[in-house]
Specification:
Layout (H helix, E strand, L loop, with lengths): L3 H15 L4 E6 L5 E3 L2 H8 L4 E7 L2 E6 L4 E5 L4 E4 L9 E5 L4 E6 L5 E5 L6 H4 L10 H9 L5 H5 L10 H10 L13 H20 L40 E5 L2 E5 L8
Parallel strand pairs: 2-9
Antiparallel strand pairs: 1-7, 3-4, 4-5, 5-9, 6-8, 7-8, 10-11
Helix pairs in contact: 1-7, 4-7, 6-7
The structure holds a DNA duplex (16 and 16 nucleotides).
DNA sequence: AATGGGACCTGCGCGC
DNA sequence: TGCGCGCAGGTCCCAT
């Protein structure tokens, strides 16, 4: 599942390869992936456009074109961007004037592409909380102070803080030795500080290793990211905790699989 | 306000 | 063997 580190990795790949490319054609193999506007307008609006800039906001990729418009791409669970493309089975392909193409794959069809005049006005993006890298510990502590909700679902709430999903929430909480079910406001000032530090460090390290290839996340060139080897708890139910050897536990929290070490992350 | 559940999707692994 | 079921989870939406 692409979260901030995975999307950032793809963003860097796009930046390295696609700036200045001119679109000649859009091949849509599954209409559902284009959410906005109509398929016809999507194609027409992109014909002849040149890629000017690549951005990431939370888990959303933004491709800005020289005509002022932008394509936003949310990979959700199983979206993949591959360049250079050409393999069978893509849901949509951007074809460029140099003969190469950027392919969008998406097994479960959760992902979505939009062509917009101003990506800043996209509702989801407007509603995003701050990027973890754009915050300081004091700000994070202040934000937690007013929240009685459970810490893990809160970290995953994109309106609260953006870019973190199920995997990195679990990893950050393990590293901070915080039980995923405790209320945010109940954390001591010190613990809040530790959580902020570990959350940022986890994301940074994951970016360094080009993301976690669980499910079907791959880098732009189709190769996997290497951070899975560093996971402490995520998808490790029943396996020994890397710190204390206690079996990692899986519970359901906020309707999501939640992995933690019952000893290292003891509930108070 | 916070929480829980369902919907969207498809492939895979499990138990019977 | 083959089949049905649960699960995977980001986001939206609705009910409580």
């Amino acid at each position: 599942m692409p979260e901030l580190p995975e999307v950032e990795t793809i963003k860097r790949g796009l930046e390295a390869h696609l700036l200045g490319k001119k679109i000649t054609q859009i091949c849509v193999h599954h209409p559902k992936v284009v959410r906005q506007p109509s398929l016809k307008k999507f194609k027409e609006g992109l014909a002849g456009a040149t890629i000017k800039n690549i951005l990431r906001k939370a888990k959303v990729l933004i491709i800005e074109f020289s005509n002022g418009r932008a394509v936003t791409i949310h990979l959700k669970m199983t979206g993949q961007l591959i360049y250079p493309g050409g393999r069978e089975g893509s849901r949509l392909s951007f074809c460029f004037s140099d003969g190469t193409c950027l392919d969008y794959f998406d097994q479960r069809l959760f992902g979505e592409l939009r062509l917009v005049d101003d990506w800043r006005q996209v509702a989801f993006i407007k509603g995003l909380g701050p990027e973890p890298f754009a915050m300081n510990p004091a700000q994070f502590k202040e934000m937690l102070a007013r929240k009685k909700t459970k810490i893990k679902p809160l970290l995953m709430d994109q309106r609260f803080i953006c870019g973190i999903g199920n995997l990195y929430a679990a990893e950050a909480l393990f590293r901070a030795r915080i039980n995923p079910g405790v209320s945010a406001a109940s954390l001591s000032d010190k613990k809040k500080g530790v959580l902020f530090k570990e959350m940022v460090a986890t994301l940074r390290e994951a970016i360094l290793h080009q993301g976690s290839s669980v499910d079907n996340y791959v880098r732009l060139d189709g190769t996997p990211g290497g951070y899975v080897d560093f996971h402490q708890v995520y998808a490790r139910a029943g396996k020994p905790c890397r710190v204390c050897k206690t079996k990692v536990k899986r519970i359901s929290l906020g309707g999501r699989g939640t992995y933690f070490c019952p000893r290292c992350q003891k509930a108070p």
